[in-house]
Design a protein that fits this description.
2 domains, Arc Repressor Mutant, subunit A, binds calcium ion, five-stranded parallel sheet, 8 helices, 22% strand, Rossmann fold, 234 residues
Length: 234
């Protein structure tokens, strides 16, 4: 699929061979690509240009990929930028931390370039899907604006990733109904089969944290999945 309007991807990777391999192949797919060989350059690129996705190596010579990921998620202008983490074999623990910090996907080196491109496309496709219908949804202290892609609790705006937003929106749109993990995987992640039901749990945990006291509106149904609490709407 050739992109009509070139989407811009930032590759942050200190290994030149890998950076060039990714750059070359993503350009062949019609993407615009910028590269950064260290964390400082990556942050500089993020400040000066707008990207649709970032491929982020975990081990960089200066700032770690996790630190950059954390920075992205905290910055309101960047918080919804999709992140694919690159990790080396044996960095299992850090991959999990990566998900906790809001990476949208991760790929282990050495990777197959075709698979990598599929992942990039899958993550981009997910980030573009907007929740259907309804401009604004109110559930108790929670307000979800699906046009602005914003959610707030008691007027405090939440800094959510695109995936977290869709998950919250999907749950809140059907209060009182149980949603099992597989269904949530289908709805939120679609055809992308690289995520597991455990990923759903990770996302739910993070969503609850971000919601603060309002997090208890997302209820766990043992052995089933999750449900958004039914609250009477004003
Ligand atoms: Ca590295």
């Amino acid at each position: 699929m050739g992109a009509t309007l070139a989407q811009k991807i930032l590759i942050v990777e200190d290994e030149t061979d890998i950076r060039e391999l990714l750059t070359y192949n993503l350009q062949l797919e019609g993407f615009e690509v910028a590269g950064a060989a260290n964390g400082e350059d990556a942050l500089e690129a993020l400040r000066s240009e707008q990207f649709q996705l970032i491929v982020l190596d975990l081990m960089l010579p200066d700032i770690s990929g996790l630190e950059i990921c954390r920075h992205i998620r905290r910055d309101s202008a960047l918080s919804r930028l999709p992140v694919i983490m690159l990790t080396a074999k044996g960095e299992e623990v850090d991959r999990i931390v990566g998900f906790e910090l809001g990476a949208d996907d991760y790929v282990t080196k050495p990777f197959n370039i075709r698979e990598m491109i599929l992942r990039v496309k899958a993550v981009l496709a997910r980030s573009k899907t907007t929740p259907a219908a309804g401009k604004s949804l109110r559930r108790g202290p929670l307000t979800i604006d699906s046009e602005q892609y914003e959610a707030s609790v008691d007027g405090r705006q939440l800094s959510l990733t695109a995936t977290e937003f869709r998950l919250l929106h999907h749950l809140a749109a059907h209060p009182g109904f149980a949603r099992n993990r597989d269904e949530l995987l289908d709805v939120i992640w679609g055809e992308d089969k690289f995520v597991t039901p455990r990923t759903v749990d990770t996302y739910i945990r993070r969503l609850r944290e971000k919601l603060g006291p309002a997090g208890d509106m997302i209820q766990t149904l043992r052995g089933v999945g999750y449900r958004f609490k039914k609250i009477s709407e004003e």
